[in-house]
Design goal:
ATP_PRibTrfase_CS, D-Maltodextrin-Binding Protein, domain 2, 7-stranded mixed β-sheet, transferase, alpha+beta, Alpha-Beta Plaits, about 35% strand, 5-stranded mixed β-sheet, 3 domains, binds 1-O-pyrophosphono-5-O-phosphono-alpha-D-ribofuranose, 8 helices, EC 2.4.2.17, binds magnesium ion, binds adenosine-5'-triphosphate, about 290 residues, amino-acid biosynthesis
């Protein structure tokens, strides 16, 4: 008898670390929950035909390239370092950081030429090699797996090339950032040879991710305004279509409802107040289908 094997996607996610929680959060908000526990490294899901492989982030690009996984969530830094050709399906907007060169703060920086003849500690030798080749810098790249920032202080290197976010690790180690080589965020990557059925499933998953991302970056705005100011306020608030305007019980006043990008909201708040807006409520959106 012929069995009907349903197509299932496989996604490689970080087992634990900075990418793990946000990756799992995105899946959960998209209605995809994994049955994890007991240290299991493969997990089935409920809510979508997908299973997860939990790996170290270093191994995610290769697992997707080899087809062990169809998809992966990985930092752009790790994707660039490993150099495997993958499809970048979506930029996910979390785990934002940069890869920078940093030197002891007591050093006088004279431009990238400073690095000529220096020893630089890093976990990202390939990205750094490329950068130095472009800039025609001859330097000694010393690969270490972690705690890169302590290398100059213990005499292991003259400088470092590592991840920077707030910059507090650099400050704590008496270093200063002198050049940003690349910016990074989490990427959803895919194997280049997914079959049609898997691509169709990926599209369905992306639809959910888009709804989650749109919801997270937008807010529902409610405010009250005198009727004569409604036109001005509607012009200030760019909604998904046009804002909804409803009469209030109090004569001469209306309630205006709209959806607005969170960043934009802070830009227009003063204009709204100048136009007599009152009782402004900003409400999170659970999902948003455009
Ligand atoms: N301080 C930070 N701020 C924002 N994003 C960061 C920061 N540090 C790292 N990241 C991003 O998160 C990714 C994972 O970081 P993490 O520190 O968990 O990696 P790791 O120690 O290499 O983990 P693994 O055990 O999986 O190899 C990095 O590759 C980078 O893209
Ligand atoms: O600029 P900052 O905000 O200080 O962030 C940068 C630090 O964050 C990461 O380390 P993490 O804290 O994840 O520790 P680990 O990777 O060494 O475990 C990265 O390796 C840097 O050391
Ligand atoms: Mg790693």
């Amino acid at each position: 008898m012929e069995t009907n094997i349903e197509t299932t996607l496989r996604i490689a996610l970080q087992k634990k670390g900075r990418l793990h929680d946000d990756s799992m959060g995105l899946m959960k908000e998209s209605g995809i929950k994994f049955n994890i526990g007991n240290g299991r490294l493969v997990a089935q899901s409920t809510g979508f035909p997908i299973e997860a492989l939990f790996l170290r982030d270093d191994d995610i690009p290769q697992s997707v390239f080899d087809g062990v996984a169809d998809l992966g969530v990985v930092g752009e830094n790790e994707y660039a370092e490993k150099g495997y050709e993958l499809d970048i399906v979506k930029r996910l907007g979390f785990s934002k950081c940069r890869l920078s060169l940093a030197i002891p703060k007591s050093e006088h920086y004279t431009g990238v030429g400073w690095f000529n003849g220096k020893k630089i500690a890093t976990s990202y030798p390939e990205i750094l090699k490329k950068f130095f080749a472009e800039k025609k810098i001859q330097a000694d790249i010393h690969e270490i797996a972690g705690s890169v920032e302590i290398a100059p202080g213990i005499g292991l290197a003259d400088a470092i090339f590592d991840i920077v976010s707030s910059g507090s690790t650099l400050v704590a180690n008496s270093l200063k950032e002198v050049a940003v080589v690349m910016k990074s965020e989490a990427l959803l990557v895919a194997n280049k040879n997914l079959d049609e059925e898997k691509r169709a499933l990926l599209e369905q998953m992306l639809f959910r991710f888009d709804a989650v991302q749109a919801a997270n970056s937008n807010k529902y705005v409610l405010l009250n305004a005198p009727n004569e100011k409604v036109k001005n306020i509607v012009d200030i608030l760019p909604g998904m279509k046009s804002p909804t305007v409803l009469p209030l019980a109090e004569a001469g006043w209306s309630s205006i409802h709209s959806v607005i990008n969170e960043d934009k909201f802070w830009e227009v708040i003063d204009q709204l107040k100048e136009n007599g807006a009152q009782g402004i409520l900003i409400i999170p959106i659970e999902k948003m289908i455009l």
